[in-house]
Amino acid sequence: MSLTVLAVLGLAACDSGAAPEPDGTSGPSVIVPGGPGEANRTLSAEDAAKQRADDDSPNSADVDYARMMIEHHEQALEMTELVPDRAESSQVRKLAERIEAAQRPEIETMRSWLKEHGKAEETGGHDHAGMPGMATEAQLSKLRSAEGRAFDQLFLTLMITHHEGAITMATEVKAQGNNVRIEEMADDVVAQQTSEITRMRDML
């Protein structure tokens, strides 16, 4: 093979491995809820970040998240309160203590956030029973009547689903909300509860 052919092949190899030209985007689009009577808007990640840097006033997604997550957390605490008298596993007991230690202060933080922004904790216009991951009354009744290992297994199963629902809600508000503090709280929920889901699955 001639040196000329080798040189041409070498150039072709370099060209095939070259990095693609940037397409001018650096993140996913963000859906921004519109005001009353207004359609939602879709912004680039860069435009959404710039808009929030100028004004991170809460939008309806932020407020709804805080209101719903308070109730979501309260159900988790209702479940953990059953653990001391019914659980068999020391691991389940310790997990329940960690969940309560994390979520009770988060409830107070969200209540304070709503008050700071002049929003009522409850409006009465939402069906929070349909929130992702919420246990039904029948499931809670079954949990209340269970004991020992049967309780442990049901508690873990329900709490995994409950945590998955919280992560869904947090992920949605990160895409649709505008307030930096709410995004920070949502980030905490995703990180904390993702870790706990892994731990609970290992315990089943």
Characteristic terms for this protein:
single chain; 204 residues; mainly alpha; Ferritin; 8 helices; elongated; lipoprotein; DUF305_CopM-like; Lipoprotein; signal
**C-alpha end-to-end distance:** 64 Å
Instruction: Return the CATH class of the domain at 59-117 and 132-203.
Output: Mainly Alpha
- Can you count the beta strands? 2
What percentage of the residues does DSSP assign to strands (E)?
A: under 5%
Q: Which percent range fits the helix content?
A: 55-70%
Rounded to an integer, what's the Rg over CA atoms? Answer: 24 Å
Q: What is the level-2 CATH architecture name of the domain at 59-117 and 132-203?
A: Up-down Bundle
Uncertain runs with pLDDT below 50, 5 residues or more? Answer: 1-25
In words, what does this structure look like?
The protein has 204 residues and is mainly α. It is 68% helix and 3% strand. Helix 6 runs antiparallel to helix 7 and helix 7 runs antiparallel to helix 8. The protein is elongated and about 55 Å long.
Chain-wise SSE layout:
Elements: H1 3-16, E1 30-32, E2 41-43, H2 45-54, H3 60-80, H4 83-86, H5 90-116, H6 137-145, H7 148-176, H8 180-203
Helix pairs in contact: 3-5, 3-7, 5-8, 6-7, 7-8
In short:
Helices cover 68% and strands 3% of the residues.
